[in-house]
Amino acid sequence: MTRESSPTAVEAQGVTKLFGAEVRALDAVSVAIERGTFFTLLGPSGCGKTTLLRCIAGFETPTAGAILLNGQDITADPPNRRRVNTVFQSYALFPHLTVAQNVAFGLEMLGKPRSEVRATTDRMLALVRLDGLASRLPAALSGGQQQRVALARALAPQPQVLLLDEPLSALDLKLRREMQGELKRLQAETGITFVFVTHDQEEALAMSDRIGVMSGGRLLQVGTPRAIYETPADRFVASFIGESSFVEATAGGGVLTLSTGEVLGRGEGTGPVTVALRPESLRLLPAGQGPRATVEGATYLGTDSTVRVRLADGTPVTLRLPASEPLPSPGTDVALGLPALLRVVAP
Amino acid sequence: MTRDARNAWALAAPALLVLLVGAAGPLLVVALFSVMSQGPYGGVAWPLTLEGWSRILVQRDIFDGTVSINEAHLVIMWRSLWIAAATTVLTLLVGLPTAWFIGTRPPRARTLWLFLVTIPFWTNLLIRTFAIMEVIRNEGLVNTVLMGLGITSEPIQILFTDWATLIGTTYVYLPLMVLPLYAAIDRMDVRLLEAGYDLYASRWGVLRRVILPAIRPGLIAGCVLVFIPALGAYVTPRILGGGTNMMLGNFIELQFGQGRNWPLGAALSMLLLLIVTAALVVLVRATTREERP
Fold first, then answer.
1. Is some CB atom of chain A closer than 8 A to the CB atom of B288?
2. pLDDT confidence of A108, banded at 50, 70, 90?
3. Residue at A1 is within a domain
4. For A262-285, how does the pLDDT look when each residue is reduced to its tens digit (9 = 90+)?
5. Of A180, A213, A234, the domain-final residue
6. Of A339, A346, A123, A134, whose CA–CA distance to A221 is shortest?
7. What is the residue-level pLDDT of chain B in tens, covering all 293 positions?
8. Could you tell me if A293 and A216 lie in one domain?
9. B20 DSSP 8-state letter
10. I need a labelling partner for B231 at 20 to 30 A (CA). Which of A149, A331, B213, B280 fits?
């Protein structure tokens, strides 16, 4: 397979990483990341997403499995032989070098001619909009500016894959929003494959072409943001990305039934199942028009309202209603308006 | 003077007094002695003269009064300089890997290793120097092992040579190099190394372009702390170098003692101070220039 014909930029094949005998940071993770896409590894802290990133970068050696770059096995290559660059969480800018010298570092180490190093450095600084600060030292920059230098430094050698290890986590909310747009723009302009690690599901949904959700060292689901949100593979994915209420029901003949005997709605499966309900997919109906529920509380949030109800079997369910609808008072008996087809998830 | 300024002076007064009496005063006395005449039985006498300073370089023949360069003095100065420089280089070569090793241990192990590095300070310098003597003398450990292994048939004469002095100074001043280097390595962000490797630097590239610049304050401190006392070393060359392989420290002592030439001794002391100051200035200049973007 030649470089150009392989649609996969980077691939993990059954990668397992043990720290000591006990800690299984990665458990047989396999994923293929398409060239030129923005791929996000999403999961809570300690889920193994950073370890997977470090395996791709070469800072960790997998206990088992292989890392492929453009179809070639690079598992045994040291970091300096991989055409892969990292934007570190702490930026890790060289404090003794100026902004321009930081950006030029990788190009110099690759032995590029001086004129090319200069030209590329200038181009990268313009790309991240830091043209005027080339001769500053990193200590004289704000957090957001340091972030941009780290990006320019990692992009300058034109890596096959750019790895970003929670690069926005140190920024305040406003700056983070701004940098999210900036990262998307950079990815589109350079066409470089981005592998982005974050624990922020909103960030992942907003930026990614595809998302890989991780938990406990396993890759649970890979898909587009829409697929991940609308058809979560299991209970963890459904609860980690967006909000979900979970209802235990019994499935049979395409119908889901609550333990109280009430019919919840249509859905697949047989025997006991878990149903995931998104708050914005639910409505409040007058009592008698659906499964019985009692209002427990309601909160007005400006753009919308949150209503907490309890089903007859005692399961709590959260709804999100348009702000224009009047808030029901606690204790009111209502019925739950459900989507036509219910989503059954693995427990 | 405001109350704050008065308080500041009052608080600084004890330290200033000690410096005045303990450092500035004696320094002035030595400077004065260096431009006085040689007393008949040691000591100094009037009138003022530059004889002491000139005797550093030239000698006057007792019989015919001809003036010539005193090569013996030049040899002593050269020996002091090269031994101090070589000591600095050797302690750096040994100290950097040592400090790196300690700095990369887990925190609890580090304390133990640092403790081991400082243990020599607990023992008197003389005793440590005699211990080295025991190791390198003709019937000592090194020669016994070398001869036992058949590497040499006769003992190698190390003791009472410049090499013995160099071994001694390197051993004695090694902790002064290790400790500041360790402090600098400990402060360094290890992620910088990963960033270096990530950006295609080889191991050598990371050492040269990332580690050494990052720990430069420690490097400078270590070199200063070793070079300056090594230049004026007294005990080590006296014992390990034998009576004849003098360094500046021994030579100065000789002038104030048996030599009974206090002006020459004082001039040599001032010269030592000037060399050290010059070395410091060069070092500071060199490093601040590099820091400019």
1. no
2. very high
3. no
4. 888 888 888 888 888 999 888 888
5. A234
6. A346
7. 678 888 888 899 999 999 988 889 889 988 888 888 887 777 777 887 777 788 887 777 777 777 787 787 888 888 888 999 999 999 999 999 999 999 988 888 999 999 998 888 888 888 888 888 888 888 888 888 888 888 888 888 888 888 888 998 999 999 999 999 999 999 888 889 999 999 999 999 999 999 998 888 889 889 989 998 898 888 888 888 877 788 888 888 888 888 788 888 888 899 888 888 888 888 777 766 554 44
8. no
9. I
10. B213
Q: Which of A234, A261, A283 is the last residue of a domain?
A: A234
Task: Supply the Cα-derived Rg of chain A in whole angstroms.
Answer: 24
Residue of chain A minimizing CA distance to B194 = A59
- The superfamily CATH assigns to domain B78-260 is MetI-like (1.10.3720.10)
Strand A193-198, strand A38-42: pairing? parallel
Same domain as A157, residue A283: no
Q: Are residues A113 and A178 in the same domain?
A: yes
Q: Are residues A191 and A261 in the same domain?
A: no
Q: Confirm if B262 and B256 have CB atoms less than 8 A apart.
A: yes
Domain regions of chain B by residue span: 78-260
b/e burial code for range A53-83 (CB count within 10 A of at least 16 → b): bbbbbbbbebeebbbbbbeeebbeeebbebe
Domain holding A299, by residue range, is: 243-345
CATH number (domain holding residue A321): 2.40.50.140
Q: Collect all residues of chain A within an 8 Å Cβ-Cβ radius of residue B209.
A: 105, 109
Question: Which residues of B fall within a CB distance of 8 Å from A97?
Answer: 213
Q: Which among A84, A94, A109 is the nearest to B205, CB-wise?
A: A109
A142: how many CB neighbours lie within 10 A of its CB? Answer: 10
Whether the Cβ atoms of residue B74 and residue B268 lie closer than 8 Å to each other? no
> Chain A residues within 8 A (CB-CB) of chain B?
57-59, 78-80, 84-86, 88, 90, 92-98, 101, 105-106, 109-110, 135-137, 153-154, 157
Cβ within 8 Å, pair A105-B194: no
Residue with tokens 């909160």: A299
List the single residue in A with minimal CA-CA distance to B214.
A96
Task: List Cα–Cα distances, A116 to A53, A119, A121, B111, B210, in angstroms.
Answer: 30, 5, 8, 48, 22
Q: For chain A, what's the residue count?
A: 347
**A with B: how many residue pairs have Cβ under 8 Å apart?**
71
Spatial separation of the C-alpha atoms in residues A28 and A13, rounded to whole Å: 8
Note whether A92 contacts B191, CB cutoff 8 Å: yes
Number of domains in chain A: 2
Neighbours of A325 (CB within 10 A): 13
pLDDT per position as a tens digit, A170-204: 788 888 888 898 899 989 988 999 999 999 988 99
Nearest to B293 among A92, A109, A135 (CB): A135
Output the CA torsion A73→A160→B189→B170 (10° steps): 60
**One-letter amino acid of B192:** L
Chain A interface includes B189 (CB < 8 A): yes
Question: Which residue reads 């994915």 in tokens?
Answer: A237
ipTM of the complex: 0.81
Nearest alpha carbon to residue A206 among A239, A229, A240:
A229
Max Cα–Cα distance, chain B, nearest Å: 78
Residue A67 lies in a domain: yes
* Same domain, residue pair A263 and A182: no
Q: Is omega for the bond preceding B47 within 30 degrees of 0, making it cis? A: yes
